[in-house]
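In these records, each integer encodes one residue's backbone shape. Here is one protein:

___
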Amino acid sequence: MVHISRRNVLLSAAAAGATSLLAQSGTATAAPGSRPGLPAEPTGHGPVGVRWLEGGAPAELAAGTTWGVPWPRGAFGPDQAFSLVTDAGDAVPVQSWVTGWWPDGSIKWTAHAVSGSAPRAEGYRLEPGEPAAPEHPVTVRTSGRRITVDTGVIAVAFQRDGEHLVEFVRRGDVTIAEKGRLVASRRNAADTDRPEEIKTQAFTGSIDEVTVEQEGPVRAVVKVTGKHRRNQRGWLPFTVRFYLYAGSEAIRMVHTFCYDGDPERDFVSGLGVRFDVPMRDQPHDRHVRFAGQDQGVLAEAVRGLTGLRRDPGEAVRAAQVAGQATPDPATWDQRVTSRLHLIPAFGDYSLSQLTANGFEIHKRTQRGHSWLRTGGGRRARGLAYVGSPSGGLAFGMRDFWQLHPTELEVTGAATDTAQATVWMWSPRAGAMDLRFYHDGLGQDTYEEQLEGLEITYEDYEPGFGTPYGVARTSELTFWALAATPDAERFSQLADANATPPLLISPPEHNHAAGVFGSWAPVDRSTAARERLEDNLAFLHGHYLTEVDQRSWYGFWDYGDVMHDYDRDRHTWRYDVGGYAWDNSELSTDLWLWYHYLRTGGPEAFRFAEAMTRHTSEVDMYHLGEWKGLGTRHGVQHWGDSAKQVRISNAGYKRFYYFLTADERLGDILHELVDADRAFLVLDPGRKLADEPFDPDPEALPLGKSTDWGSLALAWLTEWERGGDEIAHTKLVNGATTLAALPNGWAQGGTTTYDLTTGRFTGPAEPSISIGSLSSVFGLIELMTELLQLVDDERVHEQWIRFCRLYNASGDEQREETGSDWGNLNLRQAYSRATAYAAVRLEDDELAARAWQELRTGHAGYPEDHPFTAERVEGTDVLNPVDEARLSTNASAQYGLAVIQCLALVGDHL
């Protein structure tokens, strides 16, 4: 049984009683070297066991793996080194760096990387100490226009300008691949409109800048930015990172592009990564491989020697099928040898996954001739190979079938140079159609738009449903192999590509480190706890089921879930205005990440990971005037006219960053530090305003709860990571000036925000203005963490009072604030606020009240809610489904409330 101290706000003895950042220094930056108060003698920490997320010891890694580990406050100073050993005591080369800091300058988060060539075990021990050195450290050398990374097995040359991001990939003197480049194509009209003429243009990625972000000894990272260009046009800006590990023959690639076209005329019809692969052996010794579903592998030769009218010999056939060099043709049956030129050589192959439930493989001899259907299946793992016994390239994409329409293509394998292409958007599919889905329905005025909101819950405004500035990130892996792999190893590579192995620290250690606020590992020690744990498990499991049975897949959709359900049609309201895609509404992301923290389960991590990838890219803007804002829930991810920081919320993303050290998420978190600038160009209250929008940078109409909470989470994260002083200043100034208002976060009247300082100004007389959404977009979770860092009595007092009064009686509210707070909604969600106040005030009655609020289930799930699913089949549905009485708003907030109430006042359950 897990025992939790009620005094411990962050539910960790190691984090309790934290000294304040204000008490240390009003001007301290997040850089560890400038932080005062670093413990002269850090307390240290014992070994931490880490294990593979999916369990067991994986046969292959996707180049290597990188993971994050938290540490209690004061445990380690900034110069601490870490070592890694297997459970059996074998040293493992590891590279470590700091990704987060406590206010006193001690280490809060570290990242660690091991190579795919490192000793593999089911478990490891991470502990203080000098790391083992890799046998072949990765090295980085810059010379002229080229940056060369050598892993000891392969050398990869990156060009610093031009079109070829990768000049060559070599094993010794053998070039395995070269001229690695980005390719894209555009059409001027939508295929589905059946225009009289469709024009297609091809674009190639062009390099703007190349940066070496890490140089080893275990891991090197090269970042490339640029645009896709054709003649004078440059568009579809990209950021690509290449990851190489010591002793590894693989390259991991993380590819991000932003859409910056005109959706009425710029229809992306192909988006891919292409390498040239030299073909050195005879066509009958050239091999093509595709990974199918499960362990399936299609293994073929460019010029097949099996099934012929004349038999070349059993040894010849066996060698070709195994991917080995065939014996000298002089030893074959000469009736075959003399007629080799009459056997067609199939130089082009394609595996296309155009839907989540079907892939097909085709091949042809060469361009200008027809394709033959080779085979098909349901869900391919997304890996292909082209090469020979003298070397070849395996190339693939993660989440291949989930992010359809995708394709793996080999062309020219019968010539001296094959081309291997990973299509993130397959040219065999229709072009991307990112246009808004209706004509506006006559909603030309704000009055009409508000009427539309009343019926479909869609907040429409002409021109606001634009995809300009949204992004998508894809993860790819390439293996430069010395020879054609046998079927078993190729299948293992495909597994690593589809689900890259990840090391994790256990929930118990993460909790003891005191990170991420109020949560605790799963505890089924009593019947009452077990009932709640069962409810949480059902909710999470049902949404996992829904992803598949509702097919929530596709390039722009995968990772998100739907907002609300239509029981009449037995489907989610995918076509009803604001009830369709969830887009992080009411903190679904937070719920999924806390579920993972508590359970440590692989399905929980992968579910939350996919959502973070989606919501941080597709649901927010990365370019243009709305950069840093997200889009409210709707039929299209970017379609609603409400552009909000509560959707782009950094608090939803920081989990994944700290747990994996993912650089792309790091970029996005940096973007969000300045998201408050968007309030200069967009008035969130424009449809209800009486006066024209005339923004004053020193007095912006920025919301003190949902808006500020989202911004403050970005500043907190930036400060934790070692960011600049501005983020820290705004974080502290916002908290202290909001607390200085007569009624703090519940204060009414006109409150304004200073963009430069982060300070709020408001009325001196107490009044009340509070909405039910104020704290359900991460504000509660933010303040739980922030209050252990800010030693300002007024901040503590005002926030605890807010938590205590939200669900209090009108009489209590009037007595303390001068006003009744009104008929507030989401009272079950705010039970966790009551629980927080109970802990801080050591108030048993408040603790009991929190559980009563949870059980009552106002705007959520009451105690007698059926956490069950019923089978619906036959003519009532397109496909049989398991249906449950759920809405995503209620599920997310119920999940968060239960998790935090269990952690805070579980002893009162």
Remarks:
- Residues 527-549 form the longest helix (23 residues).
